[in-house]
User: Fold these one by one.
Assistant:
Number 1:
Amino acid sequence: MADIHFTPNAAEVAARIVEKVRINPGNYIDKKKFELLEYTDAEYLEEIDRIRDRFTPLVKICKEHGTAMRIGTNHGSLSDRIMSRYGDTANGMVESAMEFLRIAEDLNFRNIVLSMKSSNPQVMVQAYRLLVSTMQQELGHCYPLHLGVTEAGDGEDGRIKSAAGIGTLLEDGVGDTIRVSLTEDPEFELPVCRDLVRRYTQRANHAPISPVADPQKLPYSPFQFTKRESEAIGNIGASRCPW
């Protein structure tokens, strides 16, 4: 798989050679200069048309060569355009991917996988759940999902963050492939992946109650993070951090 950032021309060349090409919608066409941009609705639609013009050639090449595509949003590389309209949010991550996915759908290209990676497991879980809900409501079907907590770190911290993010979504019944991203030698990542998926490969007739499928049955919103309210006891609880 070719992982392409910043250079659409490179993606178009790679798509003729490799089995799958990954693009980051945050930097495939848009640039990130940490600027606050203001658009009217008409101007914003013009930006979408610009994306369509630049993205369409890659889709056609993938269709011609039977190449799969991963539309991989990263929380840390959302474009100035998305940040200006949606902020640094899971909603912005989802919309960033959906802009490209809608174009691919219009061109009848569905050989696609999506990912919503963040180094914050809470943001990552919220983004994937919101993406699944958006696809189901808008498209009527859901594309395969590649799960991962990016730049999770090393040692125990990296493993706990990966398990919290990836494991939560697997319990939802969401996810088709996973990647554990540790700041260690890559051969240490695969055993963690195996530990995470073993729970499901050895479980018969696994049928989780997915908060994405039926959020009305839950006492919380699966698409938003809010801190749990608690009572103050001594120097912990309520607004106090348990140092």
Number 2:
Amino acid sequence: MQFHYIVLDESQQIRNKNSLTFQAVHQLTGDHRISLSGTPIENSLSDLWSQMEFINPSVLGSFSFFNKHFLIPIEKKKDKNALNELRKLVEPYILRRTKEQVAKDLPELIEVVHYTEMSEIQAKLYEKEKSAARNYLSGLDKESGQYRFHVLTSLMKLRQLANHPLLTDQQFGGDSGKYDDVRDQIQTVVRSGHKVLVFSSFVGHLNLYADWMENEKISFVKLTGSTASEDRKKAVETFQHNHEIQVFLLSVKAGGTGLNLTAADYVFILDPWWNPFAEKQAIARAHRIGRIQNVMVKRFISKNSIEEKILGATVP
């Protein structure tokens, strides 16, 4: 079928040139193509190549050419000449508007960091895992293909321990400092009659709060990657219009785009994400056109953990 226009909303979804999604949209034929995205570059300049390849094929050359002349020089060598050349190539095809330009009367966004103390047993487990990871990684060949995999695995486990040791050991019987603090904060929001979005990178982490709220008879809705599309829409509408539903649990990836959740007064980020743009997208679910009151964002960070390092690298 020949289309007159092909419009991609949330076009960053085709950023992976090897994905089935990327391959599928390239089978579409049309006279004109438009891409819409709040975060056209999430991870790497390769995201830009994939989207430009859809909008205007070959304008940035083959990926191997782009990798050699732009991606490596800019990302690895900070080559300003390559960056300026790339900017000149893509500028004619991009119309960019910031949120401030679109919604000049948007209410204030207040962001705070809530530092939590790990429980004694949690801190001991964290230090034990950190030492074990350091010793294990120091014995690996840094040039081997497996080294990066083991580094990421170790960092993931440390992030989980900073949230709650239950995420790494279902038999854990101790407590978590962050878990206790977040529960207190959720109860405070609920008692005050406000609504809150609760984001986490880990579905298992969200499930801990879901179990607790069920026991406490606190009504909530939840959205993760496994939520069916019809249930996704129902959850959003329920949160937006049902005053009895004050808590919305969302995974960062599943709930970071395409949702209008302006009923929320608070946004809780339970664990920092490596990519600051993903967090901004999550926050924008509440802080968007249609919002009247201020939005309060709280990031929960476990002290003396990897979370402080991630925060320092992503938040100005």
